[in-house]
Amino acid sequence: MPPSVPTYAFMMIDLAILPLYLTTIIALLLIPGPDMLLIASSSLSYGKKVGIFASLGNATSGLILTLLAAMGVSALIAMNPMALQVLRILGGSYLMKMGWDCMRSGPADTPEITQQSGLAKVLYRRAAFCCLLNPKALLFFVLFLPQFVSPQLTATSGEQMLALGLLLNVMGLLFNLLLVLMVGTLGKSLLKNDKFRANQNKFMGMIFFALAILLLGSQVQAMG
């Protein structure tokens, strides 16, 4: 009779630490951050459809960062101060450009509620790049996921980090979609307000400028 194989041999996440991991994720999701600000403001300014695409863009970047962390690529980048500085500058510059483009847009450039498919795709890309070009997001995956890698499992650290990251991204996407539903519903009346619609691009421009200042501000602190 062949020897029994331990159940944990087929596990990618240690069930003993799973409750702590889930609790930590929930606590992190409830802390307001740049991603939440971008998704909430997109939903408020342009409606739930755009907010959903922004959430999907954020989830896409999360999956990419998870893969990089699992392969060890992100750890190599995180150990290179120059690479992190370049990422901060690129990310801040990208956000400044998005803010400038929004501020330059006039009321005539504001899309109608029924014609926002193109805008949804734009916000998808913007949300994805905002996260990918944020060194804090990269460092988060490098420093956070390994804490929950268990030596009790036969799965490699890379495989466990991949599973942990996928779970994190699924929970993050569900949370962001719930946020979109709540904020999008509250902002539905605003989208019918002519005065708000005339200034909604400027509102989004201010959001992007604020995100750029936060990102570039962290660059100044890191160099100080």
UniProtKB/TrEMBL annotation:
Main localization, broad class: membrane
Keywords: Cell membrane, Membrane, Transmembrane, Transmembrane helix
Membrane topology: Multi-pass membrane protein
Organism of derivation: Shewanella psychrophila
Superkingdom of the organism of origin: Bacteria
One Pfam entry name: LysE
GO molecular function annotations of the record: amino acid transmembrane transporter activity
Cellular compartments per GO CC: plasma membrane
Localization, UniProt: Cell membrane
Transmembrane segments annotated in the record for this chain: 7-31, 51-78, 127-149, 161-183, 203-222
Protein name, UniProt field: Putative threonine efflux protein
